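User: quick one, fold this
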Amino acid sequence: MSIKNLLIATSNPGKFNEISNLFNQINIKTINPQCLKPQLTILEDGNSIEENAIKKSQGYSKQFNTWALADDSGLEIELLSNNPGVNTSDYGGKNLTSKERNCFLLEQLNQFAKPIKARFRCVISLTNKLSESILFHGICPGYISPIPRGENGFGFDPIFIPTFHQQTMAEMTIDEKNTISHRGKAIQKALNYIKTLK
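Assistant:
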């Protein structure tokens, strides 16, 4: 039951590039759903990042009859009751730009003493053609930068500094980020599993 082609169930170009970069290691062709017809939109209305990841991978797998991989990730800040969490992608309002979203979060954190601990958490859902899913988890601990820094990455990357590092995720190259990030760790677990299927 080897995998030759894998659909990456995301409409986020930055996320697609990060994930594809890792799968190049084992010669699996990654498919961008933006190149397929009909376009599929999955409503991410789950109560957890696990639910959202499963919903996306199963939806794409069923629609295109192929193996599909989806992730859902959340930035969790204990001082904010682990928010943004499952609402990370539209925290502060659906119409905010990433820059505005970062500023909104920093304003919420102004009242707290620095440094502010945080963590990124990722769940990868890998779904086969029978709609069977397996989950892989990754966590990246760190803290919040008081000002946004860097132009790479996406989302809250400009204000997140991983533990034992000086740079924000947005100041890292894609390879540097994948080595330590929550998504990189979860995908590495998925890669190790997929290698057993070959």
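User: anything notable?
Assistant: Residues 5-195 form a domain with the Maf protein fold (CATH 3.90.950.10).
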